[in-house]
Structure formats: C-alpha cells, structure tokens
Design goal:
By secondary structure, the protein is of the alpha+beta class. It has a single domain, classed as Sortase, Chain: A, CATH 2.40.260.10. Helix content is about 30%, strand content about 30%. The protein has three helices and eight strands; from the N terminus they run ααββαββββββ. It is globular. It holds the Pfam family Sortase. This is Class D sortase. Keywords: Hydrolase.
Length: about 200
C-alpha cells in the first residue's frame, strides 16, 4: 500500500513538472511574439510617416505572413496587452492570440476574427462584460472596439465565421472557462468600432 502511495506521489510530481514546463514555454513564446509585434507596429508607424502612400491604401493592401506576430490586442479591463499572430493553428495559438487568416484586418470593414486559449492568453476572460473594450494596435493605426453582445456556441459551430456587412471584431475562446480538458463550447464576444 505504501508503494502505491509513493507511486502516485511520483506521478503527481511528474505531471506538475510537465504542466509547469508547458506554462513557462507558452509564456516565453508570448513574450517573444509581443516583442515582434511591437517592432512591426513601430516599423509600420515609421514607414507610414516617411511614405507618400495614402493611409487608406496601406489599410487595404496590408498583409502578413503565417505564424507572424504583427499587432497587439489590449484588454483594458484585464490590464493585458497580448500579441496577435497570423493563423489559428496550434503553433500560432501558443505564441499569442490567433487571427483567422480568412478574416480581414481592422479598418477593412468586415469581420475580424481572433481566437485564443482560455488558460493562456484569455485567462480571466470570464470577467469581461458588455461595454468593455478591446484595443487593436496595427502597424497602420489604433482601433478601439466595444463589446455589444456575447454568445456561447458548441465547439463545432462554424456559423460564427461569416460575412457581417460591417466591421466587427469577433473574439472567441473555449468555454466553460474553468473546464478541465477539452471544453465542449466556445464563448464568442462581438465588439463594434468605437467612433472617435
């Protein structure tokens, strides 16, 4: 009986070690991505100031590479600034908030879809409420969005990804927020541009 107890203790320590290693890896990847995103934003601001190119043309022609950190998402209520990475595959989501490649970028007048893990970048996401804001800092400017509605959908519901006929920032994560294992649902926040 004593051996079984020791075995369980060893297994527990190994599990904690693996979890800690993964958590540290995620945090390091996010820090590197945030640095890369901030550099991209700085380069964009500098080149825009030196260029004769119209800002509208810059917005319309903006592109980024898969897996590249290119912008930041600020969540004032949670006091977080997170890197936005192109793509929503596991590698991209390990580095930060993923931008669905099929969706547009801020300023392009349609659905912008961002996704992230509830236990890494979107930890404490359950504290957000209607009226809270997201601020997206792009290489060509800053965009503020206010959460107007939220919904919970099954994990395989792809109807969230659609043309909306207007600019909407759609931010998704797994739900329930404190679920252990693969969550069966997705929490979706719809945020609309705040006119200045």
């Amino acid at each position: 009986m004593k051996r079984i107890g020791i075995l369980f203790m060893i297994i527990g320590v190994i599990c904690l070690g693996v979890f800690g290693y993964q958590l540290i890896g995620h945090e390091q990847s996010q820090k590197q991505s945030l640095i890369q995103a901030e550099e991209k934003i700085e380069q964009g601001a500098t080149s825009q100031a030196e260029s004769d190119q119209d800002i509208e043309q810059t917005i319309e022609t903006f592109e980024t590479e898969e897996d590249e950190a290119f912008a930041t998402l600020e969540i004032p209520k949670l006091e977080k600034t997170l890197p936005i990475v192109e793509g929503t595959d596991p590698d991209s989501l390990q580095k930060g908030v993923g931008h669905l490649s099929n969706s547009v970028f801020p300023g392009q007048g349609e659905q912008i879809l961002l996704s992230g893990h509830r236990d890494t970048v979107f930890r404490d996401f359950g504290e957000l409420e209607i009226g809270d804001t997201f601020i997206v800092q792009m290489p060509y400017g800053e965009y503020t969005y206010e959460i107007k509605e939220t919904e919970i959908v099954p994990e395989d519901d792809t109807s969230v990804i659609r043309e909306m006929g207007e600019e909407v920032l759609v931010v998704t994560t797994c739900y329930p927020f404190h679920f252990v294992g693969n969550a069966p649902e997705r929490f979706v926040a719809y945020a609309y541009p705040v006119s200045e």
